[in-house]
Design goal:
This protein has helices at 2-21, 28-33, 80-84; strands at residues 44-50, 53-58, 65-67, 89-90, 95-96, 105-109, 115-119, 122-123, 148-151, 157-160, 171-174. It is of the alpha+beta class. It has one domain (27-174). The strands form three sheets. It has a four-stranded antiparallel β-sheet, with no helix packed on it. Strands 4, 6, 7 and 8 form a four-stranded antiparallel β-sheet that branches. The N and C termini lie far apart (72 Å).
Length: 177
Amino acid sequence: MGIAKRLTPLLGLVVLAATACGGGSSGGTQKVSTQSGGGSSGAVVATTSGSSGTYLVDGKGMTLYLFKADKSSTSTCSSACASYWPAYTTTGTPSVSGDAKQSMVGTSKRSDGKTQVTYAGHPLYHYAQDSSAGDTNGEGSTNFGAEWTIVAPDGSAIEKGKNSGDDSGSPSRGSYY
C-alpha cells in the first residue's frame, strides 16, 4: 500500500508530461504538415537571413519554398508530393513581418479545399525534412519533376550554385516563370 501511494503522484506527472507533448508525433512529415497560420488567425510570411541571403520563412521560422512546376498561383503539388512538400495553409488573412512585402502575399484554393498562402503569385510550401527553424534541406531538390527553391523577399527563387560561374555553391537569384 505504501508504494502505491508514493507512485501515484509520479504517475500523474508522467501522464501530464505525455499530454503536454501532444499526440506523439516524432516524424518530421507530421510536424511540418500541420503547420499553418494557426487557429483563426492568418499565416505569417516573415524573413530570415542565412548563407543563402535573406529568404522567406513562416511565423515559426520554418523555411518556405516555391515549386518551379507551379506556373500560376494554383498548386500542382498534391497526394504524394504534398506529403513531402506540405502546403503552407491559412485560415485567415496572411500577414508579413521582416522584409516580406504585404502587397506580394495572397492565397489560392487547393484541390483539397484548403487555402494556400502565395507570395508574388507562387504557392508556398514547407519541406518535411526541415525539422528546425532555418533548415533549408529541400533547397535545390528536383523531387516530383521540377526544382524546389527558397524564396527571396522580392519573390524570386534563390538557387544555390546556379548562374554563379563556379561550383562554390554560392546562391543566385532567378525568376522561375
